[in-house]
Design goal:
The protein has a four-stranded antiparallel sheet, with no helix packed on it. A four-stranded antiparallel sheet has the order 5-6-7-8, with no helix packed on it. Strands 9-10-11-12 form a four-stranded antiparallel sheet, with no helix packed on it. Strand 6 and strand 7 form a beta hairpin. The protein has no helices and 23 strands. It is an all-beta fold. It starts with 26 loop residues before the first strand and ends with a strand. It is globular and about 60 Å long.
Amino acid sequence: NLHLFNSGGAEAEGFPIAINQLTATPYHYIWKGEGAVAVINGSNLELITLRGKRVGSVSIGNNSSENIPICIQAIKGELIANVVVNGNWNRYNVKRKQKLKSIPLGEGEWYFVKNNNQVSAVGLSKKQFVRFADNGKKGVLIGNVSKILRRTSTTDQELFFLSQQQRIFVVNGTGGLVAQFETRVTNINDVYLSKNRSGKTLVGILDGIANNSYIYTLNGNELSKQQFEGSSKLVLHKRGDNSLVLVSESNNYLVRYPLNY
């Protein structure tokens, strides 16, 4: 089932919704002033309002994919669904239940980026971080990439953190290189970006072997030799006074370190 809870922890009216096989993270969008989500339910993409009403669906066929990327865009008053299924970027007119286009991407880890209602597909394929425009044109952004560490959104752009041995690349959703720098971390397991009180962008980096985290600036300077114990995931949490707390996990416990940077 698909559940929706409000900020107070109560389930929203109209939920839960029966879902047989959820194979994608629900994608939230606004249509005609109302919030809704797009989900993949088995072989169908379904549109569900935040009041729990199903308002559209289209078949995407049998697929072997997990965590299918979704992006909804409005074109000439109609909703267009973008999904990546079995290595193909397929575009559907939901109301007409019609496939409009299919662009072969190949095997890889794919994401959609929407900028000014223009959708592109970016991802890691054959150790290359690449971008496909909606006309099928491919551009290689960075080669010899080990993995995508994290995708994050700021107020004005989406950012992808990539690792290449001990080097980190920060790339925005349109393919622009925001930053790159070397670290002393030999096995980069996670990264997290946030701004401190003074507006400086800090990057937390988690060493997957040493199980320690370190703090860098976006231009690659390590702020100190201080290390913070923790494994698995890393978060730089901003408190109400705009100070930062590093949150990680150690021996099945959450650990928190106030940062004085």
